[in-house]
Design brief:
There is one protein chain. Helices cover 43% and strands 10% of the residues. It has 375 residues and is an alpha/beta fold. Helix 1 crosses helix 13 and helix 7 packs across helix 11. The radius of gyration is 22 Å and the shape is globular.
């Protein structure tokens, strides 16, 4: 789910719009939500009963539905998984068909109720291996095996996107590369999950101690973690002094404490854009090394493109760029840290972004002869 839906919801409430975040299950990062449908110890049958009950009872309470990660409550399951065995494979096929049909009934119900639907895509809910390998020099698809992306899963994603687009009033993408494979008219909406009044910068770059480099490998291959660690190990052997802080497998609150202590973050080398983590770290006043794909930049505002504050890196030059960063005057790093905070304040301002989403909500309701209720 990520922290974006709770962030959008929080700002909507501040704008006087009643909002309720419901998730099937809580994530490892334990983001604040209003309702978790599946309890940790629920049986498979109990989960499915709760899901069906939610689908056929909850929509009457709302005037707008905003789905996250490109799917709905029914969330169709990809039917193929290698190594499942015959009987598990058959069960997965049946379960996939069940969720596919259930979602169609769910979307038809929402449409019949006259409720506008908005869909937010975040990454691998839309990203496709075949397109990435064909069009991009560097991509996540080049680093993972064919269980992660393959022709069958690409086709499944395209079918899911096509279905959601038939019912959706608006489609949003958190990462610009997704707009290559999303329907025309989809919008790039930057991350807006932070309450910047609570995320205050802590500038540490002018410290005299060795530089603290942070990295959070949520998926080591996709993020290029091995390349990063190899480059740092090589630099260490050459006599460069630094401290590496790996943030892995901890709660969001624990991670935040670690991010506060770093001086610079190495984000990701293959996605072509920066993630929600980078936004959080920049808000704390930390420069970010990340691979930014030029082919995707026409999807973002030209002014935003010109103001990107990142230390640009590629999988091929990661060692050279890290070496340059380690040799940078601390004043230059501090200047980058302040530019990073300013960038977040301007381009990831929740009020500015969610106000635009609110306008989209109002316009969708207006087409149905309704108005957006504001408290």
């Amino acid at each position: 789910m990520g922290g974006n839906p709770p962030g959008v919801s929080r700002v909507l409430k501040g704008l006087g719009v009643s909002s309720h975040v419901l998730v099937l299950k809580q994530s490892v990062y334990e983001y604040e939500v209003d309702q978790v449908l599946w309890k940790e110890n629920d049986s498979f049958l109990c989960k499915e009963i709760n899901r069906i009950l939610a689908i056929f009872t909850i929509y009457w309470k709302f005037h707008i539905v905003h789905y996250n990660f490109g799917t709905s409550f029914a969330s169709p399951l990809y039917p193929k998984k290698p190594g499942n065995g015959f009987f598990r494979g058959v069960f997965r096929q049946i379960y996939s068909f069940y969720t596919w049909v259930l979602q169609y009934l769910e979307l038809c119900l929402v449409k019949a109720l006259g409720i506008p639907i908005f869909v937010h895509y975040q990454g691998d809910d839309a990203r496709q291996g075949e397109y990435s390998l064909e069009k991009f020099k560097y991509s996540i698809a080049s680093q993972v095996d064919n269980h992660y992306y393959n022709n069958s899963s690409d086709l499944f994603k395209r079918k899911c996107i096509e279905r959601m687009s038939r019912f959706a009033d608006g489609i949003y993408a958190l990462n610009p590369d997704l707009l290559h494979v999303l329907p025309k008219g989809s919008k790039f909406i930057p991350y807006c999950h932070l309450d910047l009044s609570k995320w205050l910068p802590l500038y540490t770059q002018d410290s005299t101690r060795p530089l603290r480099i942070g990295h959070a490998p949520s998926h080591r291959k996709a993020k290029g973690t091995n390349l990063i660690l190899k480059a740092l190990e090589s630099l260490q052997k050459e006599g460069f002094e630094f401290e590496l802080i790996l943030v892995e497998g901890v709660s969001h609150e624990e991670a935040l404490l670690k991010y506060s202590d770093i001086d610079v973050l190495v984000d990701q080398l293959f996605a072509g854009w920066y993630g929600g983590l980078a936004v959080e770290v920049m808000a704390l006043g930390k420069p970010v090394l990340v691979y930014i794909r030029e082919e995707d930049l026409h999807f973002i505002p030209s002014e935003m493109r010109e103001e990107l504050p990142f230390i640009r890196v590629t999988p091929d030059n990661i060692k050279e760029v890290l070496k340059k960063v380690l040799g940078m005057p601390r004043e230059e790093l501090l200047s980058l840290a302040k530019a990073s905070r300013a960038f977040v304040e301007k381009w990831h301002d929740p009020l500015r972004i969610v106000s635009k989403i609110k306008v989209d909500y109002a316009n969708a309701l207006k087409k149905r002869g309704k108005t957006l209720c504001v408290e």
